[in-house]
Write a structure and sequence with these properties.
Layout: E1 4-11, H1 25-36, E2 40-55, E3 58-70, E4 79-90, H2 95-105, E5 110-121, H3 123-129, H4 142-157, H5 162-171, E6 179-184, E7 188-193, E8 201-209, E9 212-221, H6 224-228, E10 242-253, E11 259-269, E12 276-282, E13 286-291, E14 299-305, E15 308-315, E16 324-333, E17 337-339, E18 345-347, E19 356-357, E20 363-372, E21 376-379, E22 382-389, E23 392-403, E24 408-411, E25 413-418, E26 425-431, H7 445-463, E27 470-476, E28 482-484, E29 487-491, H8 506-515, E30 523-525, H9 532-550, H10 554-568, E31 571-572, E32 578-579, H11 601-620, H12 629-642, E33 645-647, H13 649-660, H14 665-671, E34 679-689, E35 692-702, E36 709-718, E37 723-731, E38 734-738, E39 746-751, E40 760-761
Parallel strand pairs: 1-15, 10-20, 26-27, 27-29, 30-33, 34-40
Antiparallel strand pairs: 1-12, 2-3, 3-4, 4-5, 5-6, 6-7, 7-8, 8-9, 10-11, 11-16, 12-19, 13-16, 14-15, 17-18, 20-23, 21-24, 22-23, 25-26, 28-29, 31-32, 34-35, 35-38, 36-37, 36-39
Helix pairs in contact: 1-5, 7-8, 7-9, 8-9, 9-10, 9-11, 10-11, 12-13
Length: 762
């Protein structure tokens, strides 16, 4: 996976003494360079003993040692270096965060001693805790200077630029506390409190794994006032400092695949005195400059560290809430597009080829491309221009309805167009270069078109109408797929083979990517915690599609068995990584499930997320009429209610309650916010009463808490070869269920048919 880096765009609020002065390039460069090279001021030290200060859920205790305040920057003290015996304690505010801390440290709360540390803070923290101290001089120490330099280097190595973080704090309000610290316990940990982030509190560990430097998220959560207010511990409104309104991107792709682009972004500030904006883009992008709409070059700095680019731009004025402004980015890349050994092309960062403001916030897009004339070019949007001038093809694509992200593809393609009443026009593009010699089988263009069309029809029937007039399906010379609004990337094997009997399930793969046109293109997930509602929903759609396509349950039930094994078994994955299965953590942890402890993001977000949707379907399933109408109505309502919006797990829970007619917190607590998988041990007794028969089932439940409950179906087979399906609650560690009288004598029992509950049955 490509590393995503941050482009930090900062506007400086000029305070007293600088109210009418512009923050020039020269001023910026001097301040920025001073912070990057900051060292202790040995004239300002404090001998400390049993001193303590807290920031949100973190408490720092300095048993004994010396605090050396750092050189002042723009007249402000922005931090200190501590040498001595200290302790950091971070208390996880929720069961999940306590689980996460224990997973990495062995304790429910983080509590570690450290020998030294580097602390950066905002002015309000300095004035509250440190401004009153009586300071003294200390002898200069090259060793301490080296330690500070090491900490600064470590922060930079792991994509944390202290200068970019601190410059806004020099000129912002005192009512905006900020703390960044790195401390050495034998391992390097970083704690950060930043109220401009939705999850304001974060503790990470720096690790080196097989020569690669990684950041391990120990815990990350909302600020303490959120929990103290009594609000939902797993739900908080997203904080966006600004919203994108419109992107106008003019891109040239050279014959050698070099990309040169100009991206004009119109955005709206969502706060007063806007200090900083974050732009995500691939590390293959080399940003050249950023300008205002009138052509003014903004103060700009970039540096490269371990193949990661960071760019920081300073404005000469603040932006106020509601204000609309424009930035123009000029950038290029010789690496973001690659040419395969077969001669076709692919993007290393399909969604990272332009600077993105916020997390998948919607905007309109105008896209202009200049590409080699002999290659077919395909993009998101409506193509409004396609012309040729010499060796160049010029295309223009408009996205007048706001979308979250844009992508493209180009190459030599065979194509096939499918027009079917009630569906969008579907165009399939197969790379001619990848299939010369046909490695595994016949040309799969027709089969791919058939499956994609059937999947679009299926999703339309169960989720609602497809939102665009057409769908472009394109091949990429890679194994995976990716979905953009109105555009699919499908891995090359989808056009080469159809080995469903060998477990490859290419039709399911195609359906998974088609399903992403609904999840998350129509209904997007609110944060990384909710990504299971994209990947899990798409994964389940692919299995449901296979069940409908086959007209029986054979492959469908096999897929469910495979999912159960993946979720419940520990061991080495085919990638060589280690899996802890469901024990790796709750689904709600999202991307944090991929860690040095285990690689279970896919296991749980994709696979367990899919199984959660299956359990909801089975609970609503009408076994008498073999109907999923209730489940389909629920999913269609969800799409309609959140079309064009971001939905959270709690939003989906609220929707399910309307169709189940009950509080569904118990279900989501068990399956999204917890890790346990039940083990059922059933015993059956047939009682005869007045010529009828009663089934008494005793179900013992293990491996889950006493309050665990689920609706579990039971097939009762009779001696006359008929059967019935019973559904009943299994609660706690033992449940005794008595059926209504039945006229036929039972001869066999099957608990949990159709794999309705993710469980073990002994």
């Amino acid at each position: 996976m490509n590393r995503i880096i941050i482009l930090t765009v900062i506007c400086i609020l000029i305070l007293s003494g600088m109210a009418n002065a512009q923050f020039t390039k020269e001023n910026y460069e001097a301040v920025y360079d001073s912070i990057r090279k900051i060292r202790p001021d040995f004239e300002k030290s404090w001998e400390v003993e049993d001193f303590e200060f807290s920031m949100d859920a973190a408490t720092f205790t300095f048993g004994e040692g010396t605090i050396y305040f750092l050189n002042t920057i723009a007249g402000h003290t922005i931090g200190f270096y501590f040498d001595g015996k200290g302790r950091c304690r971070v208390v996880g505010p929720t069961p999940i965060e306590k689980f996460s801390i224990e997973k990495f440290t062995g304790e429910k709360d983080f509590d570690k001693e450290f020998d030294d540390g580097l602390f950066f803070f905002s002015q309000d923290i300095y004035e509250e805790f440190f401004s009153h101290l009586e300071l003294r001089s200390e002898e200069k120490s090259g060793k301490l200077n080296s330690r500070v330099k090491r900490f600064l280097g470590k922060l930079k190595d792991y994509s944390i630029d202290a200068a970019s973080a601190m410059i806004p704090r020099l000129y912002t309000s005192k009512e905006n506390p900020y703390l960044l610290t790195i401390f050495d316990t034998g391992d390097d940990f970083v704690f950060q409190y930043d109220p401009t982030n939705t999850e304001s509190v974060e503790l990470v560990e720096f690790k080196s794994v097989m020569g690669h430097q990684v950041i391990e998220v120990i815990t990350r959560f909302f600020p303490s006032e959120h929990y103290q207010s009594g609000k939902d511990i797993y739900e908080r409104e997203q904080i966006d400092q600004a919203y994108p309104l419109h992107y106008d991107i003019n891109t040239t792709i050279e014959q050698n695949t070099d990309l040169i682009a100009e991206c004009k972004l119109i955005f709206q500030s969502n706060q007063d005195s806007l200090i900083r904006l974050w732009f995500n883009h691939s590390d293959q992008i080399d940003m050249d400059s950023v300008k205002t709409s009138d052509g003014t070059s903004l103060a700009f700095d970039k540096f490269k560290e371990d193949d990661a680019y960071f760019s920081t731009v300073f404005f000469n004025r603040p932006l106020m809430q509601g204000e609309v402004d424009t930035l123009i980015f000029y950038y290029e890349s010789g690496d973001v597009i690659k040419k395969s050994v077969w001669g076709d092309f692919y993007l290393l960062a399909p969604a990272g080829w332009y600077p993105e403001l916020g997390f998948r916030n919607k905007a309109t897009f105008s896209l202009r491309y200049r590409t080699p004339e002999w290659l077919r070019f395909l993009s998101c949007g409506d193509k409004v221009k396609d012309s040729v001038d010499g060796d160049w093809r010029y295309t223009v694509w408009e996205n007048k309805d706001p979308i979250q992200v844009v992508g493209f593809n180009y190459g030599w393609f065979d194509s096939l167009t499918v027009v079917q009443p009630g569906l969008p026009e579907i165009k399939i593009f197969r790379s001619d270069a990848s299939h010369r010699g046909r490695l595994f089988g016949p040309n799969m263009l027709d089969v791919t078109a058939e499956d994609v069309t059937a999947a679009v029809e299926f999703c339309t029937n169960v989720y609602g109408a497809y939102p665009y007039d057409r769908l472009l399906v394109t091949e990429i010379p890679l194994a995976h797929g990716q979905s953009f609004p109105g555009l699919l990337h499908l891995g090359w094997a989808s056009f080469e083979r159809d080995d469903r009997d060998k477990g490859f399930e290419m039709d399911a793969f195609r359906a998974h990517e088609v399903a992403h046109q609904w999840w998350p293109t129509i209904v997007h997930f609110k944060s990384y915690h909710d990504q299971w509602m994209s990947e899990g929903f798409a994964e389940y759609t692919s299995a449901w599609f296979v069940q409908t396509k086959d007209g029986d349950n054979k492959r469908f039930l096999r897929l469910l068995d495979d999912w159960k094994d993946i979720i419940t078994q520990k061991g080495s994955l085919y990638t060589g990584s280690w899996s802890e299965g469901s024990e790796a953590g709750p689904i709600w942890l999202g991307g944090r499930l991929a860690s040095t402890e285990s690689q279970d993001y896919s296991t749980l977000v994709y696979t367990k997320g899919a199984y959660v949707l299956h359990m909801l379907r089975m609970m609503l399933h009408d076994y008498d009429n073999h109907s999923d109408d209730n489940f389909v109505r629920m999913m269609q309502r969800f799409v309609k209610a959140y079309s064009g919006k971001k939905a959270s797990t709690r939003d989906f829970q609220d929707l399910t309650e309307r169709y189940f007619g009950m509080d569904m917190a118990w279900f989501f607590d068990q399956w999204i916010f917890s890790t346990e998988i039940p083990r059922y041990k059933p015993e059956y007794e047939v009682l005869e009463e007045d010529g009828n028969y009663i089934v008494q089932a005793t179900i013992k439940t293990e491996d889950v808490p006493e309050n665990f409950k689920m609706v579990v179906p039971l097939v009762v087979e009779f001696e006359n070869d008929s059967h019935t399906i019973l559904k009943f609650w299994v609660k706690g560690h033992e449940t005794v269920y008595r059926s209504k009288p039945m006229p036929y004598k039972p001869k066999n029992f099957i608990l949990n048919p159709y794999k309705a509950v993710l469980c073990h049955v002994d």
